[in-house]
Amino acid sequence: MNKKGKLFVISGPSGVGKGTLVTEILKRNQNIKLSVSVTTRFPRPGEKDGVNYHFLTKEKFQSLIDNNELIEWAQFADNYYGTYEKVVNEVLEQGYDLIVEIEVQGALQIKSKRPDAVLIFILPPSIEELKDRLERRRTETAEVIAKRLAIVDSEYAKKDRFNYQLINDRLDASIEELENIINKERFINA
Ligand code: ADP
Ligand code: 5GP
User: Fold this and answer.
1) 37, 100, 112: which to mutate for ligand 2, most atoms within 8 A of CB?
2) Probe target for ligand 1 pocket from 16, 18, 20, with the most ligand atoms within 8 Å of CB
3) Residue 16: nearest ligand to its CA?
4) Residue 2, pLDDT above cutoff 70
5) Chain segment 30-58, per-residue pLDDT in tens
6) Where do the DSSP E strands lie in 85-117?
7) In the chain, where are the structural domains located?
C-alpha cells in the first residue's frame, strides 16, 4: 500500500529567504514536490504562469473561494494568494511529500485543517537584514516593501504556533537545518 506524503508549510515574512531555501531543498530531494499557488498579483519579470504561480484575475480568484477549491487563502499587501486543495490531496495521496511556501495567515489555516502538517517559521537575523534583503532583491517598489515590513510584527506574534522556528542567517547552514527538520519529520510514523 502507498504511504501518504507529509505536508510541510514554510512561512515567515516576505524577503526572509523562503523561496531561496525551498528551491535548494527541492534540488536535493526528488521526492518532495512544491505546490504552485494562485495569486492576483502581477507577474514579476521572468516569472512564468503555471511555474511560479497561477496568475489569476480577482474574479477568478473569488470563484475559487466560492467553490471551496482553496485549502487556504489570504490577502497580503493588496493581493490575494491561495493554495489548491485538490493539488495538496493528490500529491500526498501519491506518496510524495509536499511543500507549500505561504504567508502566516494561510499557514495557520492549514494547521487548523491539517493538524499533522509541519509548520516552519523562517526568521531573519534582524529586521535591518530583512529590509536589506527585500531591497537587494529589487522586485518591489519602496512603497510595496514598506507595506510588507509594516506587518512583520503581527507575523512574529504568531510564530509560537509553528512547530519549528529557523533563523535564516548563513544560507548554507539554514539549508542544512531545514533539510534536517524535513528528514526527521519524514521518518516519524514511517
Ligand atoms: P522570500 O521568498 O521569503 O520572500 P527570497 O527567497 O526571495 O525571500 O529572498 C529574499 C532575498 O534575500 C533574495 O535576494 C535572496 O537571494 C536573499 N537571501 C535569501 N537567503 C539569504 C541568506 N541566508 N543570506 C543572505 N541573503 C539571502
Ligand atoms: P510574493 O508576492 O513575494 O510572491 O509573495 C508574497 C507572500 O505571499 C509571501 O510571503 C508568499 O510566501 C505568500 N504566498 C505565496 N503563495 C501563497 C499562498 O498560496 N497562500 C498564502 N496564504 N500565501 C502565499
Assistant:
1) 37
2) 20
3) 1
4) no
5) 999 999 999 999 999 999 999 999 999 99
6) 97-101
7) 7-186
Distance CA 122, CA 21 (A): 10
Q: In which residue are the cell numbers 510514523 written?
A: 189
What is the CB neighbour count within 10 angstroms for residue 37?
Answer: 20
- The predicted-structure confidence for 133-161, as pLDDT tens digits, reads as follows 999 999 999 999 999 999 999 999 999 99
The length of the chain is 190
The residue contributing the CA closest to ligand 2 atom 1 is 14
Residue with cell 523561496: 19
Q: Read off the pTM.
A: 0.97
How much is the pLDDT for 187? 85
The Cα-based distances of 174 to 133, 167, 183 in angstroms read 16, 7, 14
Residue-level pLDDT at 116:
96
CATH-assigned architecture of domain 7-186? 3-Layer(aba) Sandwich (3.40)
Give the closest residue to 98 by CA, choosing from 80, 110, 109: 110
